[in-house]
Task: inverse folding
């Protein structure tokens, strides 16, 4: 099994319409852990939620085996779910407060994606951009069943409703996907502020570029801002090569 | 069990029972997939699920367990709504635009060192475990659970 080395970079931006940035990102190449969280509930709620989440994961130790580390991330997110709900009860009278999360972890040639909500993980491999995570929204299931076309879903009034979030329910249940990683893979974690402004083909073309990873992140962000960035925009790009 | 809709802007959020499922275990791991589905249906405990996840990860790390994003994941249509998101309606009179500078940790790049997992159990350096006993164990658990489910159903 070949060793992989990673190059990663991330940016989070308020965007053009919002007053505050409720997103948060965490990039821990030391642990091969990358996270994007998109807060909800308004200022002083959404940003608290996303910050609680990234701080919790940022403080995790990497000792033990990789499966144990994955369990610790899982545990930490479950605890954050409780913390967010307690915080909402204490400070916001039980008002909904929470955040989406998409986290990617890696060891050797194996990747793990855990998520709740509509922040996404994409993978670029052999020129093909694949969405690894699946949004937790009412429309995703309808589209999968063929009851809605993606275009109809785009126009649907519930397009911004999500069915799962950290802090959204008493018991957090994360989706988890395990996948192989091969050299030259490029992974993109992002909040919906990116993919609502930048089309998938554009993302692919930018990620295919030979520029350093941090420049590709800046290009992606620049394009979202150029399109009006109606929401906060968060982007992490992680590229791997054979060591 | 259906997910409870939660409005991102908090206006229509409500609590509810969540649905759990695991994706992506393919090939030889079909038996694990079926157990994951049982877990999704609330028939397997979180602990059991974690055991399965650990076994699967160990198998993948040892190279004995081929797994990848399932084919239908790439075909999964993205819901990339271009309509005005409800949460975007918040604070839309403000053009403030600042790129958040994240902490050193969050922007650290290009660290090629391995994560600091314990050397003795560093997955990709550990001796490859034999997967056959694991497969038998998982298959046994699946069969046991399915048997229990059938018994409960019949009862």
Result:
């Amino acid at each position: 099994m070949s060793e992989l080395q990673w190059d990663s970079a991330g940016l989070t931006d308020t965007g053009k319409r919002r007053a505050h940035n409720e997103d948060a990102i965490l990039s821990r190449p030391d642990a091969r852990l990358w996270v994007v969280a998109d807060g909800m509930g308004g200022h002083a709620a959404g940003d608290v939620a996303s910050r609680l989440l990234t701080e919790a994961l940022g403080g995790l130790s990497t000792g033990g085996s990789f499966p144990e580390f994955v369990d610790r991330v899982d545990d930490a997110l479950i605890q954050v779910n409780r913390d967010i709900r307690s915080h909402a009860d204490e400070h916001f009278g039980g008002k909904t407060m929470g955040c989406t999360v998409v986290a990617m972890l890696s060891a050797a040639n194996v990747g793990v994606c855990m998520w709740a909500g509509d922040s996404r993980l994409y993978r670029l491999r052999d020129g093909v951009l694949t969405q690894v995570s699946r949004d937790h929204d009412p429309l995703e299931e309808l589209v999968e069943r063929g009851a809605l076309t993606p275009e109809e879903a785009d126009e649907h009034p519930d397009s911004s409703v999500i069915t799962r979030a950290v802090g959204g329910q008493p018991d957090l249940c994360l989706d988890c996907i395990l996948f192989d990683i091969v050299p030259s893979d490029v992974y993109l974690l992002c909040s919906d502020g990116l993919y609502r402004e930048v089309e998938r083909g554009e993302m692919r073309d930018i990620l295919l570029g030979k520029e350093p990873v941090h420049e590709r992140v800046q290009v992606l962000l620049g394009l979202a801002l150029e399109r009006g960035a109606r929401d906060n925009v968060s982007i992490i790009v992680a590229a791997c090569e054979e060591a | 069990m259906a997910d409870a809709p939660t409005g991102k802007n908090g206006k229509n959020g409500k609590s509810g029972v969540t649905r759990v499922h695991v994706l992506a275990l393919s090939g030889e791991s079909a038996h694990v997939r079926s157990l994951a589905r049982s877990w999704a249906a609330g028939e397997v405990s979180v602990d059991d699920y974690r055991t399965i996840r650990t076994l699967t990860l160990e198998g993948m790390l040892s190279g004995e367990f081929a797994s990848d994003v399932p084919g239908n994941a790439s075909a999964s249509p993205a819901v990339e709504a271009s309509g005005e998101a409800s949460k975007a309606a918040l604070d839309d009179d403000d053009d403030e635009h600042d790129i958040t500078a994240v902490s050193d940790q969050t922007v650290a790049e290009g660290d090629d060192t391995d994560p600091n997992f314990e050397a003795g159990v560093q997955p990709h350096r550990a001796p490859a475990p034999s997967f056959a006993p694991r497969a038998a164990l998982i298959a046994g658990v699946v069969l046991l659970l399915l048997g229990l489910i059938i018994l409960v159903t019949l009862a």
